[in-house]
Amino acid sequence: MSGDSWGPDPQAPGQRRQRASTIAEVARHASVSPATVSRVMNGRFVGDPEVADRVRKAATDLNYAPSPVARSLALGQTHTVAFVVPDIGNPTFQAMLSNLSKSAAADGYRVLVADSSEDPAEEALLAVGTRRGCDGLVLCAPRMSDEQLSLLLPALRPVLLINRSSPRFDAPSISVDYDMGIQHLAEHLYALGHRHFVYLEGPEPSSSNRSRLDGLAAFAGRVTDLVIDRIPAGSASADGYERAAAVRQSGATAALAYNDLVAVGLMSALAEQGVSVPQDISVAGFDDIPLVRYVTPRLTTVSVPYGPLGAQAWKGLHALIKGEMPSHNVVFQPRLQPRDSTAPARDRHAICGP
Amino acid sequence: MSGDSWGPDPQAPGQRRQRASTIAEVARHASVSPATVSRVMNGRFVGDPEVADRVRKAATDLNYAPSPVARSLALGQTHTVAFVVPDIGNPTFQAMLSNLSKSAAADGYRVLVADSSEDPAEEALLAVGTRRGCDGLVLCAPRMSDEQLSLLLPALRPVLLINRSSPRFDAPSISVDYDMGIQHLAEHLYALGHRHFVYLEGPEPSSSNRSRLDGLAAFAGRVTDLVIDRIPAGSASADGYERAAAVRQSGATAALAYNDLVAVGLMSALAEQGVSVPQDISVAGFDDIPLVRYVTPRLTTVSVPYGPLGAQAWKGLHALIKGEMPSHNVVFQPRLQPRDSTAPARDRHAICGP
DNA sequence: CCATAGCGTGAAAGCGGTTTCTCGGCGAGC
DNA sequence: GCTCGCCGAGAAACCGCTTTCACGCTATGG
To answer: SS3 helix, strand, coil % of chain A, rounded to 5?
Structure first.
C-alpha cells in the first residue's frame, strides 16, 4: 500500500482549497506595514516607488487578493445589489436581469437574484432579508399592497421600484405605461374594424394587469360602439391555450392577451381547432418577447423595452447609491408592433355589401 | 426661514437610511455582554431564561438584525454562491437559474449571477473574480479550453461544472447528454424515412455544439445511406431565419437545428417562403423550451430538463460546501419529444410507389 | 543654525460580529 | 466546614481590511 491513502483521501479529492493569503502576510513579505499594502493595492500610495514595487511583487508572489468580505466590512459597502422579482422564470424579468446585470458589472457591481415565488407575504420578507448584505435593491413587487410597500420602503433604501410609480412612494421608480400600450393596441384593432374585443386577463392582483384593464376601460370610454369581454386567464401559455373555447364563444372578433405567452397559447389552440388567425379572429399579445416575431402568423403585439428598462434601473439605483438626488421617475412607452396576427374584421352582419 | 433647510434637503428626500443598530447597542440596552447577545441570537445560549428574554426584547426594541457582512467575516462563509454563465439572456440558463435560486434559497443561500458575455477570456477572469466573496460556484463555461479550465479549477473550489464532465477535471459536474439526445432525434427522422439531413450548427467553439456533432457522426456511422449536411449558424432565432435559403438549397428533407430558437426562426422563414412544414421539409429543435409546444406546427424537439438540472446543481454544490465527498457526476438524458414539425419523408425518387 | 513645515510610513483603532478562555459564584461531596 | 467542580456570563482575541493619527525624518526659510 503506497502512501498514506486510506478511504477518502484526507486531502479530499481536490476539494481542499488552500487558504488565501492575507494582507498581513504580504506586508511581512515586503517588510512594510499592512497599511502600506492597503494603500498600494488601492492606488492611494504616494511615496517611494521602490516600496510600491516591492509590495506588488510580494502580492503577486503570494497570489494575494484582498478579501471582499473584509473590505465590505471596513468600507461599509458590498458592491452588490439585489434584484427582487416575483418569478425569475418569466421572460420579461430575464431580459431586465440580463441588462441590469451587465450594466452593474460595468460599474463593478454584482447582482443577487431573489425570487419571491409570486407570494406577496414572501415578497416583503425577502426584500428586507435580502436588503441587508447588499447596497441597494431593484424591487419588483406587483402583488404587494400600496400600504405595505410604503411601510417597507424606509427599511429598503436605497431602492428602485419597478412598475410601482406613485406619489405615495418615497422612492424613484421605473415603469412601463401598460395603460397607454394597450390603448394603442385597442386603437389598432378598432381601426381595423373590430367592435367586439375579448381580453384574456393576467394574474388577478397584479398591478400590471390592472393597468391594462384601465387602459381598455379608457379606450372603451372614448368610443360608443365597442364591447369588451373579459376572461380570467393568467400569465402562462397554458392559460391562453385553455381559454380558446371561451374566446370563440365570446363571439369577439379580436382577442387581446395579457402577454405574448398567453397569446401564443391561444393561437396554438385555435389552430388546432381549425380557427385561422387572423382571418377568423385577430389575436394580439403584449411584451414582444424575442420569439414572437418568428411564430406563424407573426404576432401583433406591443413592444416593451425590458432590456433598456433593466439598464435604466441600474443607472437609477447607481445614482441613489452614490448619494445623488433620487432620479426622476421614468416611464417607458410601449410601442405598437403590428404584424400578421391581426387583420380587418369580417363584418358578421354585412355579408354581401350595401 | 424655518429650520436649517438649504437647497437639497440635507435629509435627502427619503433616501437617508437610519444606521442599523449593532450588537453592542443591544448588549448595553440589555445590560449584558455582546457575547451573550450573540449566543442568544444564534440559539447557543444556555443559562438564565430571564436573561435571554431581556436580550430578545432589547433586540426587537432596537430593531436589531445582525450584519451579514460582519457575520461572514467572522464565520468565514457568506451563504452566497455564484452562477457564472455565458449569457443570462438564454432561456435555458434562465430555467436553470430559476431552480438553482429556489433550491439554494430553501437552504438559506443566495445566488449571484455573472454573465461572461460569451467571451472566453472574460469567463476565466469573471469566474475567479466572482469566486472570491462567495462560498462556491456553479460554472458554465462552454467556450473555455480544457487546458485553461483545469488550471483554473483549484482556485475556484468548491465548484460544480455544467456540461464539462471529463475525468481531467477535478470537480463534479452535471451535464446533458446532447450526444445521445441528437441521436434519438436522428433515429426518429431516419425512421420516418429521411435520408438527407441538414444540421444548423450552433456557436463554433461551444462544447454543446461539438457534442451534437459527435452524436450526428456516431449515428451516421451506424447507417450507410444517410447524408448529413452542415450549415454554420448560431444560437439565436435570427440565425435560423437567415439560413432558410441555404437549407432549401441543401436539398435535405429534414433540418435539425442547434436549438429551439434556431428551429423556430427557420420555420418562420420557411413559412414566409411558402415551404410548408412538415409536408415539404421536417424541422426539429433542441431543448424543448416552454413556448415551442405552442408554435404552429408544434415543434418536434428533444426535451432537456434544465429545471431539474438547476436544482441538482444546487444539491451538488451544497454537498461540496458542507465538505462532503464530491458528488458523483450526473448526466441528464434528454428525451425525444415528437410533435408535428416532423413527418415521413416524401420520397423524391419514387413518386408513384413501387 | 535652529524652528517648522511637509512627506513617507507605521501603529492602532475601528467595521460588527463570533468564540475561546477565564473567572467568580454556587452546590455537592467528604 | 472546606475544597472541588460546574455553570453562567463577560473580557478579549480574532476574522482581514481601511484609515486616522502620530511620529520621525528631511528640506526649507529666517
So the answer is: 45, 15, 40
Q: Are strands A254-257 and A196-201 parallel, antiparallel or unpaired?
A: parallel
Which stretches within chain A are classed as H helix?
23-29, 34-41, 49-61, 68-75, 91-106, 120-131, 146-156, 178-191, 207-222, 237-242, 244-250, 260-272, 306-321
Element (H, E) at B316: helix B306-321
Q: Which residues of chain A have pLDDT under 70?
A: 1-18, 347-354
Choose among A287, A320, A300: nearest CA to A254.
A300
Torsion of CA A249, A252, A256, A261, to 10 degrees: 30
Predicted pLDDT of residue B212: 96
Supply the pLDDT for residue A305: 96
Name the maximum alpha-carbon separation found in chain A.
101
Side chain identity at residue A246, one-letter code = A
Q: Which of B15, B153, B237 sits opposite A294 (nearest CB)?
A: B237
B217-B221-B222 Cα angle (round to 5): 125
Rounded to whole angstroms, the Cα distance separating B12 from B30 reads 33
CA angle at residue B87 from B150 to B80, to 5 degrees?
70
Averaged pLDDT score across all residues of chain B = 89
Calculate the dihedral angle through the C-alpha atoms of A154, A158, A164, A166, rounding to the nearest 10 degrees: 60
Q: Are B298 and B264 in contact (CB under 8 A)?
A: no
Cα gap B145→B206, rounded to integer Å: 10
Which residue among A98, A110, A158 sits closest to B112, beta carbon to beta carbon? A110
Closest CA-bearing residue to C1' of D9: B36
Q: Which residues of B28-61 are buried (b: 16+ CB within 10 A; e: fewer)?
A: ebbebeeebbbbbbeeebeeeeebbebbbebbee
3-class secondary structure, A127: helix
A340, A297 Cβ separation under 8 angstroms = yes
Q: Is B233 helix (H, G, I), strand (E, B) or coil?
A: coil
Q: Report the pLDDT value the prediction gives residue A64, as an integer from 0 to 100.
A: 94
Nucleotides of D under 7 A from a protein CB: 7-12, 14-20
Find which nucleotide's C1' atom is closest to B71's CA: C17
The 10 Å Cβ neighbour count of residue A229 is 16
CA distance B333 to chain A (A): 22
Cα angle: B295, vertex B301, B304; to 5 degrees = 115
Residue B223 and residue B191 in contact, taking contact as beta carbons nearer than 8 Å: no
CB distance B115 to A102 below 8 Å: yes
Predicted pLDDT of residue B9: 38
Calculate the dihedral angle through the C-alpha atoms of A38, A40, A42, A45, rounding to the nearest 10 degrees: 110
- For residue B265, name the pLDDT band (cuts at 50, 70, 90): very high
**pLDDT tens per residue, range A122-157:** 888 889 989 988 999 999 998 888 888 998 898 888
Task: Give the tens place of pLDDT for each residue, A156-178.
Answer: 889 999 999 888 888 999 999 99
From A186, A155, A182, select the one nearest A171 (Cα to Cα).
A155
pLDDT at A315: 95
In this prediction, residues B242-252 reach a mean pLDDT of: 96
Give residue B44's identity as a one-letter amino acid code: R
